[in-house]
Fold each of these.
Amino acid sequence: MAEASRAYDLSPSEIEGWVEDAKRGMENALRANPLDIREQYEKQLKDLQEAYGEAMLELRARKKLAALTEREDGNSSGRSMRAFWRTGSRCR
């Protein structure tokens, strides 16, 4: 510590503070269980996959409903599709 203090013009108390900070950081890092972190990531991934699946189902249902509505109306101009999207977005 004395050698580093002289070489870098630092006080021994500064170096001691850094060493203590490093020890606390290492202790905290060792406390974190990698399996816990993995479980968190896996849960987050599962939640995102479920949300994606739900969004895809909703999109498919909206497309099918829009196609059926246009077919029933005999309307190819897209007016029924626009009306569907306006009302569908308020149903959430």
Amino acid sequence: MNSISVRALLVRGMLAGLIAGAFALAVAYFLGESQVDAAIALEEAHSHDHGGGEELVSRTMQATGGLATGVLVFGVAVGGIAALVFCYALGRIGGFGPRATAALIAGAALLTVYVVPFLKYPANPPAVGNPDTIGERTALFFLMVALSVLLAVAAVIIGRRLASRLGNWNATVASAAGFILLIGLAYAFLPSFDEVGKDFPAGLLWEFRLSTLAVQATLWSVFGVVFGHLTERLLSPPARVATPRTASAVN
């Protein structure tokens, strides 16, 4: 793939990421902000009892400009990265066309970058978590992301090498089983954190975590559809139907 095609795909990936980010922003605002407000209310009630600090950024700014900036910038960034991955993966992971390859990359990104780390270190709303462990929890979450991505890449490489001996289906099952086994070991050996207070509503915690999962699922689903459409048009343009005028000109 030449540099012009890579540049065109990178631009389309960032555009698809921006569009996907807009959809994810809508989900985050209408589905997740109510849980955040409820959690902040609990946190403020607790902080007033113990002398809380002054708010540096208004809640309105956090829920509008801050949220929009974070989600849209994240969408553009991951869209560009996914486009570069697409440039490498196209034609190397099987006989998939551009649209199917884009869908596979989006699904794999959702699984490895968010779902697998989320199952070990799920998102917490305000008022949940010990401030003294936030650095350790953040580092472990990104470590889980790195492990998940690296193990997924290794599973794909091993699966391709086993396919010639075991067949595509058996090789896929074997590599997927190895991925699940190693992720399970990481879950078992990495430290866990149980910092949810007894007075924090379990229903609110569950709804908040579901909303964060919905935001990521929306982001990657929309990205896969939009980027797949854009790459299909770029790399497999529809054949032009000859009109009577063009046909007579050729004759």
